[in-house]
Design brief:
By secondary structure, this protein is of the alpha/beta class. The protein has 9 helices and 6 strands, in the order βαααααβαβαβαββα. It has helices at about 25-40, 45-60, 65-70, 75-80, 95-100, 115-125, 150-160, 175-180, 215-225; strands at about 10-15, 105-110, 135, 165-170, 185-190, 210. The protein starts with 9 loop residues before the first strand and ends with a helix. Magnesium ion binds next to loops. It comes from Azospirillum oleiclasticum.
Length: about 230
Amino acid sequence: MAIPLDQAEVWIFDLDNTLYPASCNLFAQVDQRIGDFIADRFGIPFGEARAMQKRFFREHGTTLRGLMVEHDIDPVPFLDYVHDIDATPVDPSPALDRALAALPGRKVIYTNGSVAHAANITARLGIRDRFDAVFDIVAAGYVPKPDPRPYRTMTESFGIDPSRAVMVEDIARNLTPAHAMGMTTVWVVSEADWARPDLGGVGTGDHIDHAVPDLVAWLAEVAGTAE
Ligand SMILES: [Mg+2]
């Protein structure tokens, strides 16, 4: 059941393509570095590494999961390597900073990436001090969204009442477990086919309470900082 937004006690934000626009194309850098990591680790050409990467993603949900399950790869150097990217395509966002500062309630980041990646990106956006906590793929025991188990680990470890929480995400299917737990859900509208509710393998979006094309403008309205 969706709650009025002014009753939210906790705001849970995805990081990539949610707190900054997908048009920054940062994932292209991560994607390239994942391919490089695999090519280097297995001593294979980049094309073969790519095929392996795609198969892992398909069969295990993330490349990292496939590397860990099938090849016992240490996740720490992998995460450090693939997130060592140039954040300058992301522009600082004073408007987002103002909205987050004015928004009542705790704010946390829930990402399939790493704490270091979240720190890098939020520093670039100029919003790093606005969050009370980051729940990353390490805290999730390397089980990525949308597996429901880490959502429960997250809410339990942060003492979050899901019925008083709002979750904001660009990948619609990642909101399915949040909705099932009773959270109010906000989908940052994305045209990417892997992000859309109708192509996310979960029907057509009754797990979405708010569909928001421009998160910064929408949050500014909610927080009362719109100009
Ligand atoms: Mg995302």
